[in-house]
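dude i think i finally got it to work??
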Amino acid sequence: MTDAVRVAAHAKLNLFLRILAREAPAGYHQIETAFALLELADDLVVTRTASQVALTVHGPDLGPPEQNLAVRAARVVLDATGHKFGVALELTKRIPVRSGLGGGSSDAAAALHAVNALAGNAVPRHELLHFAARLGADVAFFASGAPAALAWGRGERLFRVPAPPAAPALVALALPPVAVATPDAYGWWDEMHPEPAPRGPLLLEADAFTGWGSIGRLGGNDFEITVFGKHPPLRALYERLAGTHPYWVRLCGSGSAVAAVYANEGLRDDAAMVLGEKHQRLIKTTTRAVAAPGPGPG
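look at this
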């Protein structure tokens, strides 16, 4: 067994996102969505130590370590394997926080796999996925290793689908920064839908994910109306991005990032040049057509 492993924690896009119903009395929401991975990724190095779980973050302040999802994920695996050692987590953040790109959830999934690798993969895969679902709905997708998947329930019920072709993507964030907490976004949706009528699922054709043109026809993101209403700069950012003629453009999850996918790198780079970085921060990346690699030597 190795003493250190490194793993990339990739960001995700929600290709569409529909809120189907609100559970009573718990208040959770039943959703239907499709996830796809981006090349944009945090970097996590996990090193075996004598005891405890320590976290070092290179990037923005993520708050108390005990509340960090990656720390909680590491502790779940250590609990399951009898606390035979501790770990030091070194996390380099590249995915913007509170952007809807799933950075925290992806970090947690990476920590699950990394700590399990240090434990000689003592926790079976199906149990690791169960841990992921308990940590958070999006964590299950990242832990699955799939480059794309349909999701239902709270987002933890997954069906792997063939990933669309890799394509150039542009992630845009408004300046000054806008942070959207997912619970707030759901709360705003609840305000607009005090007694929501149950909605049926989409009827998806077998070739729905074979190209970005067909993905663009799947539907939108139900958070866009509410989040754009609360944050007009995000609506303006969406409209500017839509004006650059992408295949696909959406609010990312519950926000605050907006992403677009283009036919080629030239169109994406032209869009970045037209938009500039005076009113938005831009990240050039690519969608992934293959699964993310697991932990490797640290």
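The radius of gyration is 19 Å.
im so relieved honestly
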